[in-house]
Specification:
Length: 109
C-alpha cells in the first residue's frame, strides 16, 4: 500500500529558517539609528509624532515582532544593577552595632 502525502504539506524541514526582523533591519531600511527605532516603537516623545508613525508603519510592513525573551532580559539586567549595593547597605544597616564594623579591615577607610 502506498503512503499518501498530507494535503498542504510544505517544503522539507532542511530549508533555511526565516529570520526575524530586528530593530537594526528597520533602522537600516529607513536610514536611522537603532536607538531611534527603539524609541519610536515605544512611542517616546523624543521622536516626533510624524517620524514615529513612519517608523511604526515600516516596522509593521516588514513584519516586526518584539522578542519577548530579549525584552525580559533587558528589563532584568537594568533592574538588577542596583541590587548588590542595596543588599550590602541592608546588611550593614542590620548589623547589631554598626560602629564595630570599623574593626574589620574591609570597612576601615
Amino acid at each position: 500500500m502506498k503512503k499518501s502525502k498530507k494535503a498542504g504539506s510544505t517544503a522539507p524541514s532542511s530549508s533555511k529558517p526565516v529570520s526575524r526582523v530586528t530593530m537594526k533591519d528597520i533602522a537600516e531600511a529607513i536610514g536611522i539609528t537603532k536607538s531611534a527605532v527603539s524609541l519610536a516603537l515605544k512611542n517616546h516623545p523624543r521622536i516626533s509624532q510624524a517620524r514615529r508613525e513612519e517608523i511604526q508603519a515600516v516596522a509593521k510592513q516588514m513584519g516586526y515582532q518584539p522578542n519577548a525573551a530579549a525584552t525580559a532580559l533587558a528589563h532584568f539586567k537594568q533592574g538588577s544593577k542596583s541590587t548588590p549595593v542595596q543588599a550590602a547597605l541592608a546588611w550593614i544597616n542590620a548589623w547589631p552595632d554598626p560602629k564595630k564594623l570599623r574593626s574589620f579591615h574591609e570597612f576601615d577607610l
